[in-house]
Q: What sequence folds into this?
């Protein structure tokens, strides 16, 4: 009975791990890059803790009202809505839709984003999965994942070795019982 429960736990863990690998890495095979949303400047469209999938985009295709992800000079990535495009100066003017002034109007970003800073446009969002992405792709999370995988492997091996069915133990070790 314990072996069945353990097998179910291992199967569920494997399915969850496969889904996370697809969300965090597999989407790159189709040209998308996942990013965790770390601030609330685009709520409710992209809630804090969401995982957004960004597709590459051409600067010429971006219009006011589009949402873009771009890189600041500091290296920080930002996802904001474009409210104006200056094609002549190659600049996007952006705003976080949740960033409001005292009178309730959306506050524009202090500096425009150059076309060269464009990373792409978000095409999908999964709420809360960004928290898991950050937790599992930073050193402490990576160590925990490796430790859990080792623990699951060790428990599985121990359960097989110490199975209560001696005949099953002999078969798994390649020893065949003689017929009487």
A:
């Amino acid at each position: 009975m314990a072996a069945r429960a353990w097998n179910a736990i291992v199967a569920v863990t494997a399915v969850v791990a496969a889904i996370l690998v697809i969300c965090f890495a597999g989407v790159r095979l189709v040209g998308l890059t996942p990013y965790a949303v770390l601030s609330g400047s685009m709520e409710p469209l992209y809630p804090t803790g969401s995982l957004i999938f960004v597709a590459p985009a051409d600067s010429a295709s971006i219009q006011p009202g589009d949402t873009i992800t771009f890189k600041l000079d500091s290296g920080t990535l930002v996802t904001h809505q474009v409210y104006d495009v200056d094609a002549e100066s190659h600049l996007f003017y952006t705003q976080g839709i949740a960033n409001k002034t005292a009178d309730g109007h959306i506050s524009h970003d202090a500096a425009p984003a150059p076309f060269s800073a464009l990373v792409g446009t978000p095409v999908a969002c999964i709420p809360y999965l960004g928290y898991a992405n950050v937790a599992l792709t930073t050193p402490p999370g990576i160590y925990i994942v490796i430790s859990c995988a080792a623990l699951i492997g060790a428990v599985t091996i121990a359960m097989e070795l110490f199975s209560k069915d001696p005949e099953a133990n002999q078969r798994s070790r390649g020893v065949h019982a003689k017929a009487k």
User: Anything to note?
Assistant: The two ends are 30 Å apart (CA to CA). The mean pLDDT is 89. The longest strand covers residues 77-86. The first helix runs from residue 2 to 24.
